Amino acid sequence: MMDSATGVLHPYWPRDLLIPTYVANDRSMSEILAFLFSVSGVFLLVTWLITGQKGTTGRLGTWRRLAVCWFAVCGFIHGVIEGWFSLYYDIIPGDQSFLSQLWKEYSKGDSRYVIADNFTVCMETVTAWLWGPFSFWAVFAFLTNKPYRFVLQLIISLGQLYGAVLYFYTEHRDGYAHSELGHPIYFWFYFVFMNVLWIIIPLVLIVDAWRQLSAAQTHTDNTKSHKSKRN
């Protein structure tokens, strides 16, 4: 679509969006998605293999191993992909670096990312610099059986859930104006599916952490009760 004010072609919604510095990608959608899912797959596979080794990590069950894999993938996506956006959001529309092109492709599902929308910049910056490192920390904590591992799981998951809810709710209040509503790829896959994961999985992990921490506190209370009775 030709922007009437600047004569710049861009594929984003709303159609009258002004993006004077926009340069079209020279990488295809398949190249960009292949990179994203292949690297995420490598993180998942390597973490799965590590957590399956005998010894320190051999005690982890299938469910726990999957949770650790999730945090490893989150560390990559938050720290690298979203970290890039937090640093270069102001030049992404005209930049041809691979990760900038990834964000320009994703922006077909949410154009707030090519206009440096205040909410997306703030939300992605917090996500990148807090939940990215914390996710890798959680992987380490579970692999080494740290006593605070479920505290980390709870903190990270609450942060992810809060960010995702605000992400959807702010766009809902804008009337889903930044995407082609109903488009099978850009709306349903990019905008909905790739983000709703950060609502569903964190919710499951919050419940899991709640149970684990409650059980630990119950054990501590019972131990104290037994000791007081003996005294």
Automatic annotation (TrEMBL):
Record carries keyword Membrane: yes
UniProt GO MF annotations: C-8 sterol isomerase activity; cholestenol delta-isomerase activity; steroid Delta-isomerase activity
A single Gene Ontology CC term: endoplasmic reticulum
Subcellular location: Membrane
Coiled coil: none
Transmembrane segments: 32-51, 63-81, 126-143, 150-170, 185-207
Pfam family, one: EBP
Residues in the signal sequence: none
Domain EXPERA: 63-206
Keywords assigned: Isomerase, Lipid biosynthesis, Lipid metabolism, Membrane, Steroid biosynthesis, Steroid metabolism, Sterol biosynthesis, Sterol metabolism, Transmembrane, Transmembrane helix
Membrane topology type: Multi-pass membrane protein
Family matches, as PANTHER family: 3-BETA-HYDROXYSTEROID-DELTA(8),DELTA(7)-ISOMERASE, STEROL ISOMERASE
Family note: Belongs to the EBP family.
The name this protein goes by in its record: EXPERA domain-containing protein
Organism: Perca flavescens
